Amino acid sequence: MSEHKSPPPSARDLEELWPKDPRSIIQLCAHGVEHQGMRVGIFAAEVCQACGQIKIFDGWVGAVATHTGGQGFICLGCLNAEEERLHPGHIGIGSEAFRAIRDRLEQRPDRYCEICRERVPNEPPFQAEHHWLCDSCRALLQEQHPGMTTEQALRYLIRERYLWWTCRSMDDLRAFRVKLEVMRQAMANITREPDSEPV
């Protein structure tokens, strides 16, 4: 049986479904596309827990490379600087640099709030998954997103922030939305039953 692959949708194909204003398209993308309950597309702009700056990552490899077990997001800039400190002139980031920053973070009594970037105690009441929030920002987040848990609202915020930072035009937003739809279709084709028609 020959495999039939449907062509990915173009921006023109999806145009009818999209709102016309950038804010609405960003909201659509930030909420993400789902396939069988799994969100498609890994991207965010988060606060680096080493330097306190907002930086971006995307893709599974980007997420894995920049997140420590329980210590939060570490930006590539901090990882590169640590690698240069440990091994001057070396190109690439080794696990030694990652461990060195993680170890320093484990000793630090505070973290940066994901919204205002003020320092907050590294204690459970201030945590939301692998992020930290001050009391004021947590209350504001819950007020602005009443139907979501704090964690859901925070995931939405960091994805929305990524889109505001990386998509400079309506064409960029449309292209990103098409990219998410193509990923959803690819996921559907990977997970489909062997005898069923491809998406």
Explain the overall architecture:
The protein is of the alpha+beta class and 199 residues long. The chain has a domain at 39-167. Helices cover 48% and strands 15% of the residues. It contains eight helices and ten strands. It has helices spanning 11-14, 22-31, 59-66, 76-86, 95-107, 135-144, 150-166, 170-191; strands spanning 33-35, 38-40, 43-47, 54-58, 67-68, 72-73, 110-112, 119-121, 127-128, 131-132.
- Count every beta strand, where a strand is a DSSP E run of 2 or more residues: 10
Sheet with the most strands: spatial strand order = 1-2
Helix count equals 8
The coarse silhouette is globular
- One letter per element, helices H and strands E, the order comes to HHEEEEHEEHHEEEEHHH
In terms of DSSP E residues, the strand content is 15-25%
Helix content: 40-55%
Q: State the secondary-structure class.
A: alpha+beta
* Mean pLDDT over the residues: 80
Uncertain segments are 1-5
The biggest beta sheet reads: 2 strands, antiparallel
Radius of gyration: 19 Å
State the end-to-end CA separation: 16 Å
